[in-house]
């Protein structure tokens, strides 16, 4: 009877080693699953190797739940963590930001402050983003003061988040003060500076900030074009657009949308074939702008041609684009086409070609 007792620890040890892999390997596998969107496989790995976990394992799975928008599972897993680091807290706060739950973000930030974990620059950047356009944006100045007391640097992400917060409060002085405090300024805070000036109606300052930018990206060109068009400064927007050497889909779409909003419908439609000729592939935002311009000048012919191009390119139709397409056919007088688009909107994706043939058949029978 002693033999089984003496062998039992050996069997136990063998079973332990069978179900253990290096922690680095486990974390790598979990991250691979998270990146590919297989959060259920990530959870299975997490559950199968409990002795191989570390804090990174927990953080990776929480991040996977948040990316797949399983916020309750992320919150539950966070509460089960034996040890939390600042990454754990930041990951959870980003989940509440994505879930548009600023109240929960604030609650857990206060929990974090009461724990032994000190918030870092990313913590405040995430929190600022969570508070934007909510009743909690009044806390932005207090958070700014807390950042200063904590001795944290205003990096480009935290500084940009603070600037957006002050724009939401219509605080020009605070907005500009934060920009001046950012130690290393690159394209991100410069873009926010231009956006803020546009929001405040200070177009001269926005244009000056754009002109003196040491480096620009596609978003820089898009926001200044949108801002100029929003303020009916069509000629200035065209000048900026013409000075852009490499025009992409964002800049082309910004010009078309701006022209349509300024009731320059023909000019907006003329840009579409020019864009296609340049080799730039349109997206659903481009087509939405084209259909809106077709409505403005009642051009059913151009609208139908754009619709055919949309089908040929195989661009998926979302709610916004579907609404623009329906609006174009209805307001340009083709009720049959409008009905077919509406029929497609109520079915599964991929029925657009079938609707196109139904549309052609209906027109032939008329």
UniProtKB/TrEMBL annotation:
Transmembrane residue ranges: none
PROSITE patterns per record: PPR
Spans of PPR repeats, please give.
54-88, 217-247, 248-282
The highest taxon in the source lineage is Eukaryota
Q: Which GO terms describe its biological process?
A: RNA modification
Q: Which UniProt keywords apply?
A: Repeat
Molecular function GO terms recorded: RNA binding
* PANTHER family listed in its UniProt record: DYW DOMAIN-CONTAINING PROTEIN, PENTATRICOPEPTIDE REPEAT-CONTAINING PROTEIN
Protein name, UniProt field: Pentatricopeptide repeat-containing protein
């Amino acid at each position: 009877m002693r033999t089984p007792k003496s062998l039992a620890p050996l069997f136990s040890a063998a079973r332990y080693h069978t179900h253990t892999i290096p922690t680095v390997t486990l974390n790598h596998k979990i991250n691979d699953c998270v990146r590919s969107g297989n959060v259920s496989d990530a959870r299975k790995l997490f559950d199968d190797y409990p002795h191989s976990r570390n804090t990174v394992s927990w953080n990776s799975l929480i991040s996977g739940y948040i990316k797949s928008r399983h916020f309750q599972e992320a919150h539950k897993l966070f509460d089960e963590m034996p040890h939390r680091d600042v990454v754990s807290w930041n990951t959870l706060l980003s989940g509440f930001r994505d879930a548009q739950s600023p109240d929960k973000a604030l609650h857990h930030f206060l929990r974090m402050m009461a724990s032994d974990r000190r918030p870092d620059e990313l913590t405040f950047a995430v929190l600022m983003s969570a508070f934007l356009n909510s009743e909690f944006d009044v806390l932005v100045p207090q958070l700014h003061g807390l950042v200063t007391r904590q001795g944290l640097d205003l990096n480009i992400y935290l500084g940009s988040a603070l600037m957006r917060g002050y724009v939401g409060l219509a605080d020009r002085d605070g907005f500009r003060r934060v920009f001046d405090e950012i130690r290393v300024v690159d394209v991100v805070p410069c873009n926010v500076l231009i956006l803020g000036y546009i929001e405040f109606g200070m177009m001269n300052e926005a244009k000056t900030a754009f002109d003196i930018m040491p480096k620009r990206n596609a978003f820089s060109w898009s926001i200044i074009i949108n801002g100029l068009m929003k303020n009916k400064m069509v000629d200035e927007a065209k000048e900026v657009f013409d000075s852009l050497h490499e025009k992409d889909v964002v800049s082309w779409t910004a010009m078309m949308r701006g022209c349509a909003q300024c009731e320059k419908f023909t000019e907006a439609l003329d840009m579409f074939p020019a864009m296609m000729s340049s080799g730039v592939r349109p997206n659903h935002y481009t087509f939405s702008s084209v259909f809106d311009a077709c409505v403005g000048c009642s051009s059913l012919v151009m609208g139908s041609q754009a619709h055919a191009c949309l089908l040929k390119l195989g661009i998926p139709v979302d709610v916004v684009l579907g609404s623009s397409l329906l609006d174009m056919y209805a307001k340009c007088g083709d009720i049959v086409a409008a009905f077919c688009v509406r029929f497609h909107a109520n079915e599964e994706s991929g029925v657009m070609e079938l609707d196109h043939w139904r549309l052609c058949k209906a027109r032939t029978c008329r």
